[in-house]
Amino acid sequence: MNALRSLFNSVGEPPRYPIEALAAAVREGNFRAIGRAISLVENRAPQHQDFVRLLYVPARQARVVGVTGPPGAGKSTLVAGLAGRLRESGAKVGILAIDPTSSFTGGALLGDRVRMHQLYTDPGVFIRSMATRGAMGGLAPATQDAVDILNAARFDWIIVETVGVGQDEVDVVRSVDTVVLVTLPGLGDDIQAIKAGIMEIADIFVINKADREGVDRTVRDLQMMLGMTEWAGWTPPILKTVASRGEGLEGLVKEADSHRRWLESGNELVQRRRDQLRLRVENILKEKVLNTARRDDGLDSELDRALREGTDPYGIAERLFSGVVAVSTGMPIPQGRSS
Length: 339
Prior knowledge:
By secondary structure, the chain is α/β, with parallel strands linked by helices. It contains 13 helices and seven strands.
């Protein structure tokens, strides 16, 4: 306990390191430590890479579910209800709500936290809003690091609720084990948009607000689209829920369990974890290359130079990449490239 107390000064102050003590507090399930750990990786603090290494477990035990869909479909209400059902069975639940980023402050709007207020007093539920900060695919850059933190804290279920941003959101399937696509009756032509970008990544379809008119037509539309796609071993079920009244949520838990068993019955879970690792490594590489290119205003200098000389974008990128390679290998910086 003394080690835990030493991590915290007063509310709002940063944790006292070493990061080993923070990692130990996370493993013990201390919510304040978990929150500060996620802040550390979200802010890309200098220690964040070493911190993630301390907590990283290749064979993740938590069930990671992504909940996605168009705005207004009731994703947050559904997530809150799903978490409540899971808690009834004694499961420990972590929720990562990916919020739109304010274009002025860079912060999350925290709407999901407001809608999940009934869960705050539950000691078995942890909720964290994270900002997309311009990331494609509706996922915060540090989402996978945050999943590692919650997994290390021994949460049984981790629910990632993503921003409804359309086709770019297909990246969510590469970051979770089970994808739940939430829609609602009466979308009309919007169903075609779902088909264009998100349809093929869903493991479970949920028609929320199923007490509205047009639910049967929406079921038929989804069934028709499912019939036009070849599915390897798992055909996504179509569920109807009224999350605001808690209706249909037990069926969602049952199907999520069934999908997990299917993943574990063959090689599919291993393949998904490999895809997740690939995405993560690619994003880390992109981040490292960009950070090196931006070092000491190198990127801005190259842009100013390109505007003066009329250099095309490919030429700019080639010069910057040559500089990145030179920095990483210790070779001389190419002429005209800032160090």
